[in-house]
Amino acid sequence: MNARNTGKRQRTNQLYIIGAGFAGQTLAKEIGEKAIFGEVVAFLDDDPAKIGRRIEGIPVLGPIKDVARLLRMNPADEAIIAIPGASREYLKELYGILKKAGFEKIRILPGISQIIEGDAHLIQTRSIDPQDLLGRTPVAINLKESLRYLRGKRVLVTGAGGSIGSELCRQLLSGGASRLYLFGHGENSIYQIDRELRLLQEEGVGEKAVLVPLIGDLKDSAYMDYIMEKLRADVVFHTAAYKHVPMMEENPVAAVENNLLGTENLINAARKHGVRRFVHITTDKAVEPVSVYGASKYLCEKLVLANGTWKQDDTNFMVVRFGNVLGSSGSIMPLFQKQIEKGGPVTVTHPDMRRWFMTIPEACSLVLKAGGVGENGGLYLLDMGEPVRIRDMAEQMIRFYGFEPEEDIKIAYVGLRPGERLDERLWSADESPEETVYSRILKVRRKERKEPDIELLTESLRPICRFDPEQPEKYRNAALLRSILQEAIPSMKNAAGEKVPGFILPPEELHALKN
Questions:
Q1: 132-151 tens-digit pLDDT
Q2: Is the Cβ–Cβ distance between 424 and 287 less than 8 Å?
Q3: N or C: the chain end with fewer CB closer than 10 Å?
Q4: What mean pLDDT is predicted for residues 374-395?
């Protein structure tokens, strides 16, 4: 079936745009103007009102499931799904139809939260991957409206090269900020997000905020004071942290030094130099923590919220907490993908381990929304839906790549690692989430109870992280650090006294896995 006969020399590749709505039409126009990418030969759509029409000379064919199997394709031909508001269920159906039709290359536009008022650009498309098909359908957020509070402001994102920080920056392009400061410790990641954002701007995505890449270390208090004085940022989104749970169990002092003392430096500099909104990103692992990473984030939450209650200036402090995000650099999805590509096995910690998951774009859209509507001293929780069993996710990913679990790709259970538990919690026994008028943003009410004095606790940890000539024996003393955390945080003490349940492979299977 030849979708379009233009009388021109046949191109190397033909493009089929799935969805003949405004986003699809915008892409088709851009591809036509930049002919080097190939030729759009047809729209595929399920809307009876569009089927049979021509839009800018391009035929609209459908229904998709009927016509896709009739297409004659070359290996270079490509499908672009241009339906930003599509549900997860519909995307799964489309993906199955397109793969069965023979499409090897399938691209997708980002979720609707990243498409501002129907404004779609070819540079925003990317290869479809499992995170597009897993989990629930993201909530649609009017980003332009949500980001109004940032118009004309100077915005600093710490950890801007990380998974959450970089996505915040992409979405912040559409906020009308005057300056966007990309702060990070790693030069490569900051270079990459800086270049990506500049390319997006060149292609018409977002507005013309001035981008300023910054390499620095949160642990350096003098530098943080210096740079915050120079930047005069109005709003700070603090995402930077050491996050890898087992790695931080091996490096507990580094976790507390970077996460807690680094956050303290940023808070002090923000208050001193006139930041108006300080939004701290935290994790479900901070809830009744059992790991050093979780404990460090628990203490960060307390520190930020305490600054909100002290209220000695015009800075508003708030915390936004959520669970795991799909596809982050340290998450299980990239690991599963690499394991599948080498033929398995896919390693799962425990058959019953469950986690809450949300896509990175949705989490960031909700963080940006909460940053605008949140109150000083407020703790906000993103509605994560229902927890997902990791085994089920592994099976879905194996099928995404065209294999059958256990038949083609084995699943191996390797046991809980240090600092892990079977189930995470989104709020503690002393907290209760309440709905707000904003979809999927909850406000957490905290019961009055005796809390550890965060200032005294921070001071007790300081000589462990930073050399004090009057207390040299405490420097880098990991055992002392753990004992202080266990004394201050009951869940840490309980975890230290319990054997965490695990599921360990038989010795012969473990040996086979290692080899």
A1: 887 777 777 777 888 999 99
A2: yes
A3: C
A4: 94
Rg, C-alpha atoms of the chain = 25
Tokens 């956050």 appear where? 263
Q: How far apart are CA 136 and CA 133, in angstroms?
A: 8
Question: Using the 8-state DSSP alphabet, how is residue 260 labeled?
Answer: I
Residues annotated as catalytic (active site), given as ranges: 285
* Six-digit token string for 208: 């013309």
> What digits encode the pLDDT tens for the residues 48-78?
999 999 999 999 999 999 999 899 888 889 9
**Beta strands, E only, 162-250:** 179-184, 210-215, 235-238
Residue 450: Cβ within 10 Å count: 5
- What are the Cα distances from residue 186, in Å, to 227, 299, 313? 17, 24, 32
Is the Cβ–Cβ distance between 158 and 183 less than 8 Å?
Answer: yes
Q: What are φ and ψ of residue 440, in 5° steps?
A: 65, 15
Which of 74, 1, 10, 64 shows the shortest CA–CA distance to 39? Answer: 10
Start-to-end Cα distance in the chain: 49
User: For the segment 411-431, what is each residue's pLDDT rounded down to a tens digit?
Assistant: 999 999 899 999 999 999 999
Q: What is the dihedral of CA 515, 327, 83, 63, to 10 degrees?
A: 20
DSSP 116-156: BTTB--GGG-EE--GGGTSSPPPPP--HHHHGGGGTT-EEE
What three-state secondary structure class fits 430? coil
Dist CA 320 CA 261 (whole Å): 19
- Exposed/middle/buried for residue 20 (C-beta within 10 Å: 0-12, 13-18, 19+): buried
Residue 393 has pLDDT above 80, yes or no: yes
Tokens of 81: 């799904």
Task: List phi, psi (to 5°) of 79.
Answer: -110, 135
Q: Quote the CA–CA distance of 494 and 486 in Å, as a whole number.
A: 8
Show the beta-strand stretches assigned E in 203-257.
Answer: 210-215, 235-238
Note the Cα 291 to chain centre separation in Å. Answer: 21
Angle between helices 478-488 and 454-465 (to 10 degrees): 170
The phi, psi pair for 25, rounded to 5°, reads -65, -40
3-state secondary structure of 207: coil
pLDDT at 409: 96
On whether the CB atoms of residues 183 and 263 are closer than 8 A, the answer is no
- Within 8 A by CB and 6+ apart from 499, the residues are none
**Considering the chain, what percentage of its residues have pLDDT values greater than 90?**
71
**Interior angle at CA 490, CA 487 and CA 495, nearest 5:** 100
Identify whether the C-beta of residue 244 lies closer than 8 Å to the C-beta of residue 258. no
Give the pTM. 0.87
Amino acid present at 315: T
- Residue that the structure tokens 């896709």 belong to: 68
Q: What would the two tokens of residue 356 be?
A: 């809450």
